[in-house]
Amino acid sequence: MASKLLRAVVLGPPGSGKGTMCEKIARSFGLQHLSSGQFLRESLGGGGEVGVLAKQYLERGLLVPDHVITRVMMTELEKRREQPWLLDGFPRTLGQAEALDRICELDLVISLNIPFETLKDRLSARWVHPASGRVYNMDFNPPHVQGIDDLTGEPLVQREDDKPEAVAARLRKYKDAAKPVIELYKSRGILHSFSGTETNKIWPYVYTLLSSKIPPLLSDEEN
């Protein structure tokens, strides 16, 4: 368990390696990795009011709106008031950042800056297992059998918004929504930006930053 109740967020566009970075941080520093995508999938399966609401949007091929995601996340964070955590995929908009402010004070925000071309290539090579959210990349993390999930043997799909023609619009939309969030955290002096094309090369710098805030459980090389 981390010695301080550290509350951190990892921001980054789709395909920036947020999930991988969060897993590394969680392992090395004993923080809970809280993924908005994971909580959304769980709420869909749980049959609660918010899950039913989210399902209506997803079944029509629409993005789940801000207020629904915010309700899912606030419910989960309320349960973890006494725990150190790391948020992945939330907040994505100023409205979500303001909702987060109402229940906690963040210590640290990590922003991943990845070149547009790298993101485009990564997303276009990305296939997912819908039920679990497991992500494969055909270039550097392919499944053992093409088109099949390693653990369940179920088929993988390419999300509509990962298809090459949709990627540019999706990245633009992310950038527009994220800009005021980044500015907010920058103005508070808690934003730390890291640029590069490979998670493994950015990782040592992220590790050094976090080590200055809380004692690590694993060394840089162990991860």
UniProtKB/TrEMBL annotation:
The keyword Ribosomal protein is annotated on this UniProt entry: no
Region LID, residue ranges: 125-162
Residue ranges annotated for the Adenylate kinase active site lid domain, each copy included: 126-161
Annotated residues for binding of a ribonucleoside 5'-triphosphate: G15, S16, G17, K18, G19, T20, R126, V135, Y136, T199
Subcellular location: Mitochondrion matrix
Origin superkingdom: Eukaryota
Species, as recorded: Aquila chrysaetos chrysaetos
UniProt-recorded name of the protein: Adenylate kinase 4, mitochondrial
